[in-house]
Design a protein that fits this description.
This protein has helices at about 15-45, 60-65, 75-80, 95-105, 155-170, 180-210; strands spanning about 5, 50-55, 85-90, 110-115, 130-140, 145-155. By secondary structure, it is of the alpha/beta class. The structure holds ligand 0O2.
Length: about 210
């Protein structure tokens, strides 16, 4: 049977949205888990600490569409909301982030649509992370749907910062006092420093072990 390759814009209802984006998340999660197992076997090292994935809630999707001035329709969701399917990969070291990103990029069935490197260019809030927007084919019984997934790759320290900042923003409903905002920026710089020091320390340990 010949399969049609469909665009996401052919997704018709909410149940289908959930089905397809969940399938896309499973595909990426499985790929990453296999890569981690392979690393463990070949290099005796796990670059991935853990992986979290989620489908954006309908409420958050509607909020995002509203923010950008779009009506809440299924075609608009699929076209304009890039992170309906989101996966977060937490690593120990900054070097792991770029290594994982390169491996994702090299997968023949994954198309990288865009990359935002908030590690090289942190957001004014202090937010640091490496974002990749990719498309992965989802195989249904009668068609293949190229589906967007947002992959956020960050270190444990960056993740710690982002989750605290998220909680603070939620508590103050977006109106965070300036003093707390600048403390958060300072914390982000400390986290970046910690990441650098831990990476150097790890590299030193690796050199010593390889000499032994
Ligand atoms: P949630 O709750 O994680 O779903 P776009 O997604 O393209 O419309 P933007 O801002 O250009 O909007 O995308 P970007 O910069 O890639 O950020 C998207 C996601 O990154 C956010 O999703 C957050 O998960 C995370 N993020 C970005 N900036 C910050 C920040 O300052 N603090 C924290 N804690 N997280 C951030 P959502 O939809 O905003 O939220």
């Amino acid at each position: 049977m010949e399969m049609n390759i469909n665009r996401e814009s052919d997704i018709n209802n909410w149940e289908e949205v959930i089905l397809i984006y969940n399938a896309a998340l499973k595909q990426i999660s499985t790929k990453l888990a296999i890569l981690n197992d392979e690393f463990q076997q070949v290099h005796k090292y796990n670059p991935i600490e853990h992986i979290k994935s989620r489908i954006k809630t309908s409420g958050s999707i509607v909020k995002k569409l509203k923010k950008h001035g779009y009506e809440s329709t299924i075609p608009n969701m699929v076209q304009y909301v890039n992170d309906i399917a989101g996966i977060r990969v937490i690593c120990s070291f900054t070097s792991d982030i770029y290594q994982i990103a390169d491996i994702i990029r090299a997968q023949s069935d994954i198309k990288v649509i865009s990359v935002k490197d908030y590690i090289v260019n942190p957001k004014p809030s202090g937010y640091m992370s490496y974002h990749m927007l990719v498309k992965v084919p989802v195989y249904l019984s009668d068609r293949i749907v190229d589906t967007k997934v947002e992959i956020q790759i960050r270190t444990v320290a960056m993740d710690f910062w982002a989750s605290l900042e998220h909680k603070i923003n939620y508590k103050f409903e977006g109106n965070v006092p300036d003093r707390i905002k600048s403390e958060l920026v300072a914390c982000s710089r400390i986290a970046a420093k910690l990441d650098k020091k831990m990476l150097l320390l790890n590299e030193e340990i690796q050199t010593i072990s390889s000499e032994e």
